[in-house]
Records
---
Amino acid sequence: MKKTVKISALILEVILILFTFSGCWNYHELETYSIVSGIAIDKGLNGYKYHITFECIKMSGGGAGAEIEPLLLEEDGNTFFDTVRSTLRESDKKLYFNHCKIAILSPEIAKAGIKSLIDWVQRDSEPRLTMDLLVSREETAGDILRVKPQSGQILSYQIAGTLDEVTGYYGSSTGVQLYEASDILNTEGISLVLPAIEKKKEASGETVQFSGGAIFKGDRQIGWLASNSNKYYDMVRDKVKGGLLMTGPTPGSTQICLEIRKSETNVTPVVSGQTVSAQIQVQMKVSYAEQDSEKDELTQTGIDKVEEYAEKTVEYGIESVVKEVQQNDNSDIFGFGSHIYQNNRKEWERLSPKWHEIFKTMKVNVEAEVEIENTGLSRAKAGD
Amino acid sequence: MNTSDSFAGAKLPSDRIEQNIRYLRDLFTDDETLIFRRLVNEKGKQPLRFCLIYADGMVNNRLINQDVIRPVLEFLFKPDEGEALIDTVQLQAMFSNDAKKTDSVEELIQGIVYGDTVLLAEGCQQALILNTKGFTLRSIAEPESERVICGPREGFNESILTNLSLLRRKIRTQDLKFKFLTFGRRTKTKACICYMDSIVNHNVLTELERRLEKIDIDGMLDTNYITENIKDASYSAVKTIGTTERPDVVAAKLLEGRVALILDGTPVALTVPYLFIEHFQADEDYYINYVFSSIDRVLRFVAFMLSLISPAVYVAMVTFHQEMLPTPLLMSIFTSRQGVPFPTALEVTMMLVVFEMLRESGARMPGIMGQTLSIVGALVIGQAAVDAKIVSAPVVIVVALTGICGLMITRLKGYLIIHRFFLLLCACVLGLYGVLLGLLVLLSGLFGMTSFGIPIMPDVYTRGLQNYKDTYIRAPWWMMIKRPRFLSGNRVRQSGGGKKPQ
């Protein structure tokens, strides 16, 4: 008898714990939700703090005749969660954020700080931390979501997919997911760069495209990074997964196009007293992708020479992007400070109060090593 | 028990033939299949009277005519033999290979009802039981439920002696033992325990005999009567006793150290102990290339898991963990659920029940109607229900997958049906948590079960590769040099084996 009581108590306890402490006890049918694919955050109208545009997935029909199209909801509110919940005034379906892939911020919101957005996403159980954060180059972020999707049915997913491709194979913008942004904001000696997006007029209508990045200092946006500079920023951050490298005998010339296969960067900060410099070593393996010139650069000048051109281009590109950021924005987006922090914490504690000034004047020394692995042709060019 | 059934110790009443005939006729009152054939031999100085008693239809008439009636009528008996007459018939006159002298009424009755002929002679209290069995039997055909594409095509039939001969022909050694038992107070059904004396696990054998002794039942028409009486885990749907209709399967199991039980009147033989892994082993696995059979084994495991958990996982994913579905899949499920009036859990349950109904009606109805059923089933349940928005298309897919996978391992049919619904219930209440907890419950149940003292899932935790060579994969024959430890004490299967043949 005593044993039975004990066992039933145990079972009861287990059931109670399961129901109360597990996160997913609630049974809910899919169709009672409105699935959000992306959000755009603007400054609120009529004195509200935020104006959020939700792109929801509107699904009608079933089976083969199913139609999927975006449905835009817009709300104002003083906090993110309040804004989200106030959609219930006009819709019978709760917004469901698990499949929300992007959040676009208007420049105004980005300039005012993004900490509160990150805070809400981290606290709420539904939105994913792998959401991509973007900054709109247009005045309002909602405008971006109002563009008609070009491929697929949902613009947000098109944007998220494009961001993956552009990060991996082109390099003009670099995707940053929400948890990475949060990590960077909480790390000393490094600043955030979010990809920037803009509208583009085309013959067939409007579309969206990525163009460079938005430079932050702390959680506030202070400037922009051009598309071309973003590639070299990636090199310093050792984030290059692929992409192209245009080079030629003179800096800025584009006779030769190389495809980056593998790239590795080592940044070594050198501290001596109050002056800091950084040693940046780039090792790159490329293949010869295209040549756009009368003469056959490869056979006439030789592989070594072309590699040398490429090395010069990389060195020049990195030096100029660092200089540009030092002069225009003075925000350590390259993470030189965090390299010092990681290698020598004491030095960093000494330097950090004045890092603002030190970064502005610090020197970088770039050494690039480019190796052409593959010329793409198995025999001499026809006609030579 | 009705005492008129028991003749223990009763003897034929007299040495007068007429009295004995009357006695037997009284015993078989109202049984008109019984034939009393009187014979008189007048070759000698005095006429000698004999009587043959047999059941019509149970005997070989030709045999009785040529080998019993003719010699009895034509033999020249010495005069005044008295009691010795019956011995002369048995030893000199008769052409029968199996003749037994007795005066026990019990034995005579047993003989007559089982196709033997009883011969009574004038002046003898003893009678002869002649083996003249000649009832018709089903031929040795391939069992419908255990077909193979490649391998022996024999199957047991309903006669125990035929079945034992099939087995004997496969294992020609004196080491193969046959022990006869009789079950059923009224049916008096014969059964036979078969085992290889030098290989068998004697603990299992004694345990089996102990449990069999306890059975007290009036009729025994199929081996399942025995199974349910001696099975471990009596309330569970898990099989702990194997069944097969194939002599090659029984022979293989005997060679691994198992014990088989063959019952008269049914082609289904039992084998013990029965491990869980045996649900997944098919006899054909051993007759085809080991690579293919290993692939088949793995497929069966996958099918088992799919059949067990896919409805539960579907419900858990769609109603609890939408975030875990890839977005395109989510959209596709979402659109197909539009307009469906029932909650997902009910939808799945309904379709599973309908599928079980289809399956059962397919098994019960006459074969000719099979075509109609599959058309009705596929069209009405599948297409029409989806078109009419009674169920959503993914549910039909999930249920169909469950069904197909379930049909792949028919031996686990009962287990799958019950536990599939159990897991579905768990999923409806607690989502994936529930599925995992339910699986834990099922697993601990299986781990706790034994079959005649042998745990049914030892292959999961025992050490030694030899124990695994016939489980999740089937190793080539030359590698299987030992028998599983838990089945047999005599472990060496191939001495000097284990090397690559060439």
---
Amino acid sequence: MKRGVSGKGAKAGLALTRSVCYIVLILLSLLCIFSFYFLIVNASRPHAEIMSELSLSPGKYLFKNLSNLLADKNISLLRGLFNSLFISACTAALTSYFSAMTAYGIYAYNFRFKKAAFTFIMMIMMVPTQVSAVGFIQLVSGMGLMDTFYPLILPSIAAPVVFYFMKSYMESVLPLEIVEAARVDGSNEFMTFNRIILPVIKPALAVQAIFSFVANWNNYFTPQLIINSDKNKTIPILIAQLRSADYMKFDLGMVYIMIFVAIIPLLIVYIFLSKYIIKGLTLGSVKG
Amino acid sequence: MPEKTERKTHRSVSYAKWGYFFIAPFFAVFIVFQLIPLLSTFYYSLFEYYRVGLKQIGPNFVYFKNYIEVLTGEMPEYALNTLIIWIMGFIPQILVSMLLAVWFTSYRLKLRGQRFFKTVIYMPNLIMASALAMLFFMLFSPVGPVNQMLTEWGIIDQSILFFNIPITARAIIAFMNFLMWFGNTTILLMAGIMGIDQNLFETAQIDGAKPFMIFIKITLPLLMPILVYVLITSMIGGIQMFDIPQVMTNRLGTPDRTTMTLIMYLNRHLTSKNLGLGGAVSVIVFIMTSILSVFVYSSLMRNYRIPREKAGTALFGKTKQKQSEVEVI
């Protein structure tokens, strides 16, 4: 330790480096927060004020803007919220359950095509959903499912990335002796999975359900291809619709409150769940 | 003895069948909703098949005419746009993430409030991209807060029309991509650094290596696999860039189509029901991502070449073990 020779100098140097780190971190945090701060500020101000001048402190118009938006007949906000919530909740449940089921099938049993099945799922993991959209639309309209929620919910049963996460998680926490013990007790395999395995992998299920919920809440590409009637529109579609309308004619307070509704509830949930979310990230996606 | 063996074999065979039962839903849904659409997309790409008003043209088999049309037409331009915007976002992303990951994992610095900072920088990743695009469209609009601020501070006299200038329009999209992904990358890289044998750092420090040298000689080379993983997955994500430019430019890729991305182009064919051209664009994008995916695939499968028990440790053991030493969050 060359620096260690002069203890004081090293300490001062370290303190300086540390302050630089903190300044950079604070600036980056501000960068992350500033746009949302403006969102809150402008969502709580009336149209005329937003147009005329800049403000750094929130106004008192939040609920007025919100009730204006709810009263607007062209934007069915509540309907959109319900649709988004419904689709996201269904996909979250299906994705986590069926991915765990698939992962368990490959993890716990030695069947003939086990390796082939695993390799296959790994190979299709990175295929973007967009590239099969042409055929997907044709298929969905052939099935008569256009403008319904089925094509947005059912495909989530096959989620290779979630499968990979679940399988890795099982390898680290699930001893097969549990399964053996259940067999001795005469438990049916499917019951064993539902009653014994699922509780053990609950943390993984929760993390993947959260991620899947968020991904579907935010999803814009597939819904905009499938949904066309007003009553079935999801929040991202309503946002895009807001942009394609001539926004200068709009009440800007309402535009901001609409973005607010799309973003802020999720942020609040995130603040409570962030610990699990960030931990889940490092568990699932690091492959050294 | 023989009797026992026989019974054992019999038992394992009867249970093995359950494997098919458990993986059946995945494969059934995959085949119906992904494989069949993918194959039919390939099929449509060879046909002239579109709609003019109410009139349906085709399907007429035209060999590779659609591919020639998109490749000699607008597609290269849009591929270039996508690449430029991706690079503009990725370079700051990887640099900032690397810096933060090294800082957060440094024993020497022992930064406080890590959990807070990680929570904040990861936050934008969960935001609805379309809503973020709309928000930035409002913030940077001629009467938006950014222009108001710049005018108030006397930096400009007239509002800057950010969305009418190619470089600023692209930069705003790239900035949103950066904002959404640098926290995620930071956390991935941190986990990677914590997976490195800590003795190496200590030994180097005792030998008098400066932090920068430690970074160049130890951290960077050992982190290479994860860096490659981050690079490739980010590229694949970049190719799929859609929501932000689509909503921000109201699907037009303004100004002058300089922010039109590959998937926006594909989406245009999808909404105008041109299955032939849409199919050709899809297949080309599919090939591009497949080539990139090979790298991801091989890096993930490396874990499974080592014996089974070790594979689990490689994925979780290390992170968990290090958790006790350095708090992950």
